[in-house]
Amino acid sequence: MPSQIPPAERLLNLVIALVNAPSSMSKQQVRASVAGYGDAPSPDAFERMFERDKDTLRELGIPVLTVDAGGHSDDVGYRVDLDAYTLAPVDLTSAELGVLSLAAQFWQDKTLRTDTARALTKLRAAGRGTRARATRARTPSRA
Fold first, then answer.
1. For residue 133, what is the enclosing H or E element?
2. In terms of pTM, does the model score above 0.85?
3. What are the 10-residue block averages of pLDDT along the chain, 143 residues in total?
4. 47 with 31: CB under 8 angstroms?
5. Pair 98, 139: CB distance under 8 Å
6. Torsion of CA 130, 134, 135, 136, to 10 degrees
7. Angle at Cα 93 formed by Cα 88 and Cα 96, nearest 5°?
């Protein structure tokens, strides 16, 4: 028997699928293509799992929309409202970014090092113009 995907991983898989879908996804598409839903032993079990997961995502603040397929079809699809889900641009001053860089240098635990480096890269990329470049120039490297 294949190992079941944990609920948290299944939720993340659903968010990734709904965010990256070119349009809405039908329940059938979700069941066929999102890891964790094919494990449902019956159509009823899938329905309960999917409904529960949509409710959970909405409770977590992820705007899962139900959209009508249009026309005379009774089909509905699901997607994430990207306008409501996208974070506002991060606008840190050079001093704020410098403090975060300094704090990251103190985290020498190998398990945190990669995560902090990724976070700083994302924050630097979110910076605009000369502010981000000036901070990069002053931030010592961790060779």
1. helix 129-138
2. no
3. 79 94 92 92 94 96 87 79 86 87 72 74 65 43 42
4. no
5. yes
6. 100
7. 100
